[in-house]
Structure prediction request, 493 residues.
Amino acid sequence: MERRGISRREFTRRCLTAVGGAAAVVATGPGCRSLPRSRPGPDALRRDLAGLGGRLHLDDASRLDAAEDFGHLVHQRPLAVVRPASADDVVAVVRYAHRHGLTVAMNGNRHSVFGQAQARDGVVIHARGLDRIHGIDQDSADVDAGVTWGELAAATLARGLAPPVMAEFQDLSIGGTLSVGGVGPASHRFGAQVDHVLELEVVTGTGERVRCSPDLRPELFDAMRAGFGQCGLIVRARVRLTRAPTHVVVRELDYGDMDAYLAAASRVLNSDRFDHQLGHVIFGEGGRTIFRLKLGRFQSGPAEEGRAEMPAGLEFERASAPIVRTYWDELNQRTSVTRPSPRWHHPHATLYLFVPSSEIGRVLSEVLADPAAHEGARTPTLFGVFPWRAKPFGAPLFQVPRRGDTFFAFYLFRTADDVTSGRAMAASNRILYDRARTLGAKIYPVSAVALTRADWKEHLGPAVWPRFAAAKRQFDPNGILTPGPAIFGEGGR
Prediction:
């Protein structure tokens, strides 16, 4: 059987070749320095990191495990794996890596799909070793990076509180989602999870443990939120809480016509009557395509009269009866795949785009007209498309279209039968992304798309990229942190 993974560098070369790109894959920008070629051996690592409170793993099984993620398309084996007992262990590892030119990456429950949290020939830190909820008050929670959103919600709902934006998957780590952005069914109202961070505690690329917020080291704070771990590793966060509902009334509306669905979804968004809003494309029997709008309205009890009237003119083909669920049950309607589930071991190729509302019809039509985009899928493609307002998204590194007041979130979650099919899906992701960005779309970089340094520079734009690059030089001068996304090229700067 074909080997499951290849390096990100090789994968990027293949994908760019597949779409007619240049042969050069990752440019090392001016002023970038290559890391030293010599690396400490196992004996040196065991000796020099003997003082860790957590566990240092040097065995082949642990290293091979850390070289995989949910995508199973990129394979980068580290020298060592660390499960920290505290943030002090993270400090010790990063300082050691800084001295010896080792790359370092941190991951939570390993739901990256394209090697974003891997570190070839470096050290991978498992954030799940940082699992303490330090405190909860009436408007915020103080938590370690390895705590999952589900674990936090279980603790806060007991007090009638919850974060404003919860992810669709509750076993994602808080540090992981804050490093990439974090979105969910309430993002149409409240933006990304990084828009509700009050303070972060991070370990920079020199091993300095610092706090940052809008008022304290704001340049680092902005570089950390959706910064893909380029300027520091999140070890602790204070996140905003709001009063939580006890129940959610759920309605589903079905459409057989794409334009009618897009118009209805936009009308519902503008009505501001629903607290959760999602939409999915379903491939029915006989090749029929169904567009399903899912709406949720919060209420404070199961019998409360909170079932909002539907806006006029939606013209749906079918409407479900209202379903009342507890808020906890609604949050857990979709759980992400975790090990040892058999589905974990299949390749996955996610594409997540943010498309201007004026162009979503064109993008959606192209995807639906291209059967090759879904070939080789082991299970039906999970296909989402729904509108969000642009205004709530304020973190500089979390890029959304600013052409108009609204845009559409568009995603494809695909599971492949084998690595070959998974790679073909990732190559098609790149093609779809290139088409969409000519129309003003932005990518959510959690996707299985081979992005080069030039792509990242274009994605962030002339107002944001220079500040991000300056923060990288300041807080990670040796370019050791989180090499997987290749944001600053092979040299890491």
The longest strand covers residues 289-299. Residues 1-5, 14-34 have pLDDT under 50 and may be disordered. The CA atoms of residues 37 and 101 lie 8 Å apart.
